[in-house]
Records
---
Amino acid sequence: MSNASDQEHPLHEAVIEEGPGRKPRGRKRARRLARKAASMPVVPAIGEPQESRAVEGPLQPPTAAGGLVGVLQRRWLLQLLVRREMAKRYSGSFLGLLWSYIQPAIRFGVYYVVVLGLIRKSQSVPEFALHLFCGIVFTHYFAETVSGGTRSIWANRSLVDRTSLPREAFPIASMLTAALHTFPQLVLLMLVCVLVGWQTDLVGIVSGVLGLAIVVIFSTAVALFFSAVNVYYRDFQNIVGTLTQFMHFMVPMMYPVTRVMAVSHSHPLIYQLYMANPIAEAVVLLQRFFWFGSIQANGERNPSTAFPPGMLERGAITLVACLILLWFAQQAFTRLEVKFAEHL
Amino acid sequence: MAESIVVDQVSKVFTMHYHRTLKQKAVASLRRLPLNETFKALSDVSFTVEQGESIGLMGLNGSGKSTLLKLINGVMRPDTGSVLARGRIAGLIAKGAGFHSQLTGRENLYLNAAIMGLSEAETDAKFDEIVEFADIGRFLDVPVSHYSSGMFSRLGFSIAVHVDADVFLADEVLAVGDRPFKKKCLVKMQEIRQQGTTIFYVSHAAASVRSMCDRVLVLENGRLGFDGDVAEGIRYLHYDDDVESDDEESLEDEELGADI
Ligand SMILES: Nc1ncnc2c1ncn2[C@@H]1O[C@H](COP(=O)(O)OP(=O)(O)OP(=O)(O)O)[C@@H](O)[C@H]1O
Ligand SMILES: [Mg+2]
């Protein structure tokens, strides 16, 4: 470049005054200025010698590694993603966050009226409202995690194809968001239980812990896997709605689990299939903790207050199966993730 | 000096999908239309960059520059070969930061910084500097979907350049900025260059590359056509016409100076 532009202060801008008597070569100047505006400015290097920058750390692939474990260590990032998810969900809606309570409340009302008012058969279930509410809280958590998780990567595509953050962060953030939404419901459930006179025993506590762990791990595994598949087949997010709707009828909340146990002799296959559903198994365990804990005190017993034989053993096996499932989901995710950026 | 980036025999193949839904796929396969075609965006690219080098990445549209930067940034993985990098990588690829349109500028700032590995405290410490440099005024608390494209890239550039990265990627970031901002960015880039940051600068402007870089890589249809000296690289590209017009321009600048 010429000396003139080298000596210029880098931030210096020429000011061109337009005044009378400047007509000659005006067109040429305009053309020149237009070209100058379109071209890249030239900024000379800083005269001083370059400092050497010591970068510690090894040479490594720049793609984010670590999978689920790596994601869970990045707390601050997850926190921001969860906040983002919350903000996005209710942006521009009047009732905002309240919607995550209105929906389950309405569902509770409808199911309660339908089951008690119209079908009437379940009247024999003591504290039926608690029985129903307990089921709704956990199926709601499952539905929120899976539907939010399935959409999560697609919904965050502007981040996925520009940045290298671990992609597992999105379904995990959906899962945490669902947990945050469900938590007040859980508190309410516990509160009602205590008011009714809840007490527990060792079996109850083990059931509660097992049930909660199964719900969380199974939901996470499904969300993780579906989020990846949904990038390739967007039809998935539509299937998921039906699946989660279906789940309301596939867990013992509108009817006692004894109804299902009743068919175990006549149709053992149906019984085994029903109980193979980790969410059904988890809800049975959680009913044992919340609902049964509430009726335990008043000694109110009838045929509907029984639980399947070998419930805890089955719960432990289901938990292990869910952990294996989560491992498989992570493997599948890692495989599918490779081509995310170009599919979005 | 240590190696900053090692790209070893990297190839990247894209599959172009023509039919998205299952139904469309079924119809297409009944009619025996191709379901997808592959396209080799990068083939067998190898080079090594030392910490502190400033690389001008040049080539025609579609030659694979953005793809190469996406591999270096870790957005994509190479199909064959390997990409290794050292330290924190920041930058803007293919005109646009990873912003989420529903979030405000402020929220995007924090999210972006967190993605690049900054903690809350580190971001807080740099916040004022970033906002001042971006100079988007009241729009900081407006969702970025309401930003002009210039404001979008101002904020993106400002974040990327202030996170104290070891490798800085600038892929046509400045294309939509106005002239004063372009200049401000280039000054800032010279500054981080002097501090020893590895820089990748994608630009079609020969003069700008000449002042910013000490080495040029030229991509031609996904192959590394040239790797070496800046002046030679620009000659290799036949941007000589540009060189002439630059001279002309600087002549005119002098003229202009005399005129005013
Ligand atoms: N996700 C994708 N799927 C299919 N093809 C892609 C994808 N991304 C890029 N390509 C193709 O790869 C080639 C290289 O693209 P790239 O964006 O790297 O070019 P570039 O050198 O940055 O061009 P420009 O100068 O226009 O920015 C192009 O032909 C483009 O169509
Ligand atoms: Mg490009």
Note: Chain A has 16 helices and no strands.
---
Amino acid sequence: MAGGNMIARHEGSDRLIKISLLVVAFSAVSVLVIITIFIFEQGLPIMMKYGLKNFLLGQNWFPSEKSFGLLPMIVGSLLVTLGALVIGVPLGLASAIFLTEFSNRRVSRFLKPVIELLAGIPSVVYGFLGLMFLVPFIREKFGGSGLSVLAASIILGIMILPTIISISIDSIRAVPDSYREGSIALGATRWQTVRMVVLPAARSGLVAGIILGMGRAIGETMAVIMVAGNAADIPGSLLAPVRTLTSNIALEMAYASGEHREALFATGVVLFVIIMILNFLANLAARKQYRKK
Amino acid sequence: MAEMTQRENIIEVKFLSVFYGQFQALKNVNINVQARKITALIGPSGCGKSTFLRALNRMNDLIEGARTEGQVVFDGKDIFEPDTDLLELRRKVGMVFQRPNPFPLSIFDNVTYGLRVHGQTARGFMEERLFRSLQAVNLWDELQDKLQANALSLTGEQQQRLCLARVLAVEPDVVLMDEPCSALDPTATARIEDLMYQLKEKYTIIIVTHNMQQAARVSDYTGYFLLGELVEFGETDQIFTSPRDRRTEDYVTGRFG
Ligand SMILES: Nc1ncnc2c1ncn2[C@@H]1O[C@H](COP(=O)(O)OP(=O)(O)OP(=O)(O)O)[C@@H](O)[C@H]1O
Ligand SMILES: [Mg+2]
């Protein structure tokens, strides 16, 4: 019968779609795997040759003298990322909460796309603005050159805002209104409702937004290079210059060769591992908190 | 059942009208709600039963464009007076919703939510109220060993009971129930009805229901709403056996529409 035939044909095209999706997914994943393998293959040998400890804990980065200490850059990356989160997370969450729970619908309908637009501004523009306004401001107010951990943190904090805000808004909006009603009907204020019900209910989405923001901060290169000063020393204060792992690669790749080049790949390996660890920790924190509740 | 002992009005609704923008959802409703009785509100869909219920704890305030006229006197005071303590009103007039809506928190946190919201956070106090409210809804035996479990892992009936316990924990005077059994199967419904029967010793219950048998079974008083009007209000026996209004008769005998 025609019906059976149709079903058979449907199943046939389903199979086809399934297989092609599988191929696409598989090739995407394999490209990632190949890149990862390549980075490790390029970077690992030199780390083994000079010793993992020297790479991770060495404080001197003098590639021409075969001294490849990455500690200043590791500390630098972690510092500016932490700084960015300290600035970006409270601001981002507060904005998202305000836009979803405490402003009228028209305002948030208008502002959300605007905020998302901010994510599309190229990082060199953020860096340039930072260099023109923020760095001189820090220099005049707090002293030093202005090219500093502080400047990099602030710029990164602003850069991760759109990510955090927009993902937080989506996850807060996804919390069913019945929770809010239940809370208000028990005599809770709006703020109590947000704090005690809405945010816990939205937690996994909020954490996802923060992790993405963190990923953006630790991976950001151009804007950081422009405002951070880039000295390969462990910064002694928030006003001292700082060099991140990404900056280290970007600043020297143009002329690096031989072992120097390999050491830059090793920098990439370290960055890779740090990002993995941070993701893992953030996920763990999210899950643990959830179970406690 | 005929002549009740002394009557005590806990809520007096006077000429209550509610508008959603231009649309008038409730028209000059007058009801006296008796304390520690079950009052059922019946009527076809969209006739304003939920709107009426939500007026009593001012949940309609949350709806943009909703406007109220008339009075609801509770505790000797009109709740629409500007100086009404809304949070306290909602503590005293609790609400159970159509779909069970426990928070995605632990059972403990759900039941003690109202207490924490009202600043009553002493551990012993919370535990005592937790125990009493879960007992009151017959959940204590089932749940006492998994108070830290997520409330969303419970069955629909347990969730609805939990929502009731959450309301009872703050010791309300009145419990509003908006079709509390519509998401439950018949056995669960019967058990919830039993529970309501137990609860009316202490609480005044106002229940909206689509189910006329339910209204007839559980309630002492019944009100029939039609198109925003309270057509008839009286003792349940009378409403179901000798309704005064023709429209009520049509509805309770199933000749409606
Ligand atoms: N937020 C709102 N905005 C506009 N109109 C509304 C709103 N809520 C309810 N209405 C209208 O008010 C009328 C009464 O609604 P209500 O929910 O009180 O009816 P109900 O008797 O509870 O119906 P049901 O039995 O279906 O629950 C309906 O015509 C409905 O369309
Ligand atoms: Mg309704």
Note: Chain B touches chain A through 29 residues (CB under 8 Å).
